[in-house]
Amino acid sequence: MNLTRREAIEIGAAAGASLLLGWQPAFAQVSLVEKAIPGSGERVPVVGLGGRDYRAGPGEDLSRFRDTIATFARFGGKVVDTAPSYGNSESIIGASARDLGIRDRLFLASKVDQAGRELGRARIEASFTALGTTKVDLMQVHNLRDATTQLATLRELKAQGRVRYVGITSSSDDQYAEMERLMEREALDFIQVDYSLRDRNAAERILPLAADRGLGVLTNLPFGRASLFRAVGDRPLAPWAAETDCASWAQVFLKYVVSHPAVTCAIPGMTQARHAEDNMGAARGRMPDAAMRTTMERFFDQLPRG
Questions:
Q1: pLDDT attached to residue 207
Q2: Cys-Cys crosslink for 8: which of 3, 39, 91, 126, Cβ 3.0 to 4.6 Å?
């Protein structure tokens, strides 16, 4: 049976309360697909959580964020990406991890987005405080800002054991040339770049270079800023989706991204438990091979741009 994202979400919502108490649907019994971080061999699930929209005003109920993270973790999720520029995302994620008692199960990634050594260092220290942790798994230079200066600081923190991996991020084609230069010149563990079935430019040079340099790759915007959902609209799943065990369009979009050989983990934004359950389904079952990836590309290339 083919399900739309809406139908799969409605089914997941009915099970939501039981899920948080320990119940899991049948698909959760299938082993998670993981990939190794090239520089270390450490393995992480191929679907993570992007925290850009973890923002709340004073006194606002934070339970939906906590429930989303709880569901994400219960289904095996590990990589959580945030940034100090995402409002109070770091504080919400840090408090949720603490309250749920799952900090040690998460791979926390954040960013530094200031120019200058002192401002950058202060921003990093503020992130440690907000996240409520003494160690961050991955710290990245956000949108390449003052990258050479900030990477020097991050390598110092890595040597001190406070940061495990260092990297750079971008979500714009306009920065690809500079990203390539940094990838070739700097000692990096990770890059983060925009990549989706709709926006495939990173596959031309950035992803092959990451593979050549032995870098881990996080991919942001795997839904093409929601343009992929707008493009498919209310269409039922294509028949070929069953060949990769996809139960929703979200899983199709994510499996396309994470099946690229250079991609380590996709980090879709999700602030609802039912989306976390749906998205984590993309980290299980069969993955597209080269022929299926071509089929996916041809299908979406003939749809109107969303």
A1: 98
A2: 3
Predicted confidence at residue 134, as pLDDT, reads 93
The interaxial angle of helices 117-131 and 147-159, nearest 10 deg, is: 50
In sequence order, which residues have a C-beta less than 8 Å from that of residue 126 and are 6 or more positions away?
A: 84
The residue length of the chain stands at 306
b/e per residue, 269-280, with b = 16+ CB within 10 A?
bbbbbbbbbbbb
Greater confidence, 2 or 142? 142
* Residue 24: per-residue pLDDT: 58
According to DSSP, residue 47 is labeled B
SS3 133: coil
The answer to whether 167 and 210 have CB atoms below 8 angstroms apart is no
User: What pLDDT sits at residue 156?
Assistant: 98
Q: What stretches of 59-133 adopt beta strand conformation (E)?
A: 79-81, 107-112
Phi and psi at 39, nearest 5°, equal -75, -20
